[in-house]
Write a structure and sequence with these properties.
The protein contains no helices and 16 strands. The chain has about 170 residues and is mainly beta. The protein has two domains: about 100 residues, Methylamine Dehydrogenase, Chain H (7 Propeller), CATH 2.130.10; about 55 residues, no CATH class. The strands form five sheets. A four-stranded antiparallel beta sheet has the order 3-4-5-6, with no helix packed on it. The protein has a four-stranded antiparallel beta sheet with strand order 7-8-9-10, with no helix packed on it.
Length: about 170
């Protein structure tokens, strides 16, 4: 079940959104504030209209496993997902189609995903503890703080917060 809360008052302002048949592992607001994406153990991503609570897109691929993490691109037109099958997928929110082949490189589930502020890069976190480093030359600073990732800054340099026992992250160009 998904609910939208007023952070100042502490009350539910939208929801509950129901429709997943498994646990919801991740939720993300679109930057325009109009939609919420949710990733689930039922191997789907739902994109919800915040005002109506209705599903506007159901994203699924036959070979995809449970979805651990979702994030929107800065223009709200795409989502990225990370799954237990060690893949990263980029989706078109309007069509529900995968934009490219799955990105691979981790050896364990993808626990966190995020777009860079300019939407040209995707950063992922995993529990694989592989010394895989960066896939693209950028200034990348890693701070072990818990679960999740957050990109801040410009396209030339940004700060990555990686949480959990995760010690490594992969950066993909998109």
């Amino acid at each position: 079940m998904i609910q939208v809360w007023d952070a100042e008052v502490g009350k539910v302002i939208s929801g509950p959104f129901t429709g997943h048949t498994g646990s919801v592992n991740s939720v993300a607001f679109s930057p325009d504030g109009e939609r919420v994406a949710s990733g689930s153990t039922d191997k789907t991503i739902h994109v919800w209209d915040v005002k109506t609570g209705k599903v506007t897109s159901r994203l699924s691929k036959g070979d995809m496993e449970a979805v651990c993490s979702v994030a929107f691109s800065p223009d709200s037109k795409r989502t990225v997902s990370g799954s237990t099958d060690q893949t990263i997928r980029v989706w078109d929110v309007e069509t529900g189609q995968v934009v490219s082949q799955p990105l691979r490189g981790h050896t364990s589930l993808i626990s966190s995903v995020a777009f860079s502020p300019d939407g040209k890069h995707i950063v992922t976190g995993s529990q694989d503890n592989q010394g895989m480093g960066c896939r693209h030359q950028l200034n990348l600073f890693v701070h072990g703080l818990g679960y999740g990732v957050n990109c801040e800054g410009s396209s030339r340099s940004f700060l990555l917060h990686v949480v959990a026992s995760t010690k490594h992250a992969l950066l993909w160009t998109g």
